[in-house]
Design a protein that fits this description.
310 residues; Glyco_trans_2-like; Nucleotide-diphossugar_trans; single chain; Spore Coat Polysaccharide Biosynthesis Protein SpsA, Chain A; Glycosyltransferase
Length: 310
């Protein structure tokens, strides 16, 4: 057994379908992690673009690659989770990335420091199609009360222990095509999970016109969230009410109750964001994995680690 094998194993699943434009950065952001005890599973639903050729280029660094027809994202996730043997589990969609090479090491360190925590999530930076910074929300501790009202947890920034996953059934509900992460996290809560929000940027969430989160929000997302609110709250929330609760979580003021105070805080935050955008000057922040000096050594170390594990 190597020193890395004594560290908690982190299993990550990437569901994939025709994301050839982005998936290489997704994969590279996982395999370029400084933390070596990672089990990486990619499940592709027979992509017809360049995705398959990209998967072939990285096959030595991916533990399990499944390429077969599936019934969508949730089905792909469930296939991938069946191959996960890690102590800590997460999934990263094929258009998102981890924020830097130490992301997983940071997450594991927090889990080690907080053995009572079941689910941990960090902060999200939203990026555009070209990888340039768009915006982010202020850090706020987890609020169970607010979470029942609005899904504010960034999925690509979230990790959970195998124990809570198994306690909650060890599956993603295939009934949900959009809000499957919200359903899973609410199910974690139902099973007594303790959540922790950390003040670290963990994931890069990509926003673009053809993105699933954008074009399915009204047709699929809202009805699914309404179903969850009915189940957990006993009532459904109007879209505006839900958005106001989401803003209340981040800005501590509900715009529906105190619009002028909310506007002041929101404008102040937007000034800070505008400064950050100006500092970055439209430089892509999703290409770090191709530029860090030690990346080739990390790739070599990961290959060696996989051979030793085998």
């Amino acid at each position: 057994m190597t020193e890395n094998d004594r560290l908690p194993k982190v299993s990550i699943v990437t569901p994939s379908y025709n994301q050839g434009k982005f998936i290489e950065k997704t994969i590279a952001s996982v395999v370029a992690q400084s933390y070596l005890n990672i089990e990486y599973v990619v499940v592709d639903g027979l992509s017809t673009d360049e995705t398959i050729s990209i998967l072939e280029r990285y096959q030595e660094l991916i533990d399990t690659t499944i390429i077969e027809a599936d019934e969508g994202q949730t089905d792909a996730l469930n296939k991938g989770f069946k191959y996960c043997s890690g102590d800590i589990i997460a999934y990263l969609n094929s258009d998102d990335c981890y924020a830097n090479s130490d992301t997983i090491a940071t997450v594991v360190n927090y889990f080690n420091q907080h053995p009572d925590v079941d689910v941990l999530y960090g902060q999200r930076h939203s990026i555009d199609e070209d990888g340039c910074f768009l915006h982010c929300d202020p850090y706020r501790p987890f609020s169970e009360q607010n979470f029942y009202l609005s899904d504010f947890i960034p999925q690509e920034c979230t990790f959970w222990r195998r124990s809570i996953f198994e306690k909650a059934g060890a599956y993603v509900d295939t009934e949900f095509k959009f809000a499957m992460d919200y359903e899973l996290f609410l199910r974690f809560l139902k099973n007594g999970a303790k959540f922790l929000a950390i003040q670290e940027v963990v994931g890069l969430f990509r926003e673009y016109p053809s993105q699933k989160s954008a074009h399915l929000w009204h047709s699929t997302g809202l009805p699914e969230i309404a179903k969850l609110h009915q189940l957990y709250l006993g009532r459904q929330l109007e879209e505006t009410e839900m958005i106001n609760y989401n803003k209340e979580h981040f800005y501590r003021v509900n715009p529906g109750h105190f619009p002028e105070i909310f506007e002041f805080y929101e404008n102040f935050w937007h000034v800070l964001i505008a400064h950050r955008i100006n500092v970055l000057k439209h430089k892509p922040i999703d290409e770090w994995m191709f530029h860090i000096q030690e990346v080739h050594q990390i790739f070599s170390d990961r290959k060696a680690h996989k051979l030793l594990a085998f």
